[in-house]
Amino acid sequence: MLLALLPVAGLGLGVTMGADPFQVLLHTPLGAACGLVAVALQAGGLLWSERLVGGVTR
Fold first, then answer.
1. What is d(CA 56, CA 18) in angstroms, rounded to the nearest whole number?
2. How far apart are the C-alpha atoms of 57 and 35, rounded to whole Å?
3. How far apart are CA 36 and CA 17, in angstroms?
């Protein structure tokens, strides 16, 4: 769960500091590329973590 919430916390921290991370992610080509890579890495990390935990709990 913690791995899934860290990106959301990072976006919240950016907003709290006065930056506009959503403007960058949604309205620039580099931001869109970073967002897509982040989603792919997040999904891979969650699957990997699930596999590691599943191996221990068997």
1. 42
2. 33
3. 23
Q: Which domain holds residue 16?
A: 2-57
| Cβ 4 vs Cβ 42: under 8 Å | yes
Domain count, the chain: 1
Of 47, 46, 48, the C-alpha closest to 4 is 46
Give the Cα separation of 6 and 42 in Å (integer). 10
pLDDT digits 0-9 by tens, 14-49: 999 999 999 999 999 999 999 999 999 989 988 998
- Give me the residue label for tokens 């913690």: 2
Contact 38, 8 (CB under 8 A): no
Q: Quick check: 36 and 27 in contact, CB under 8 A?
A: no
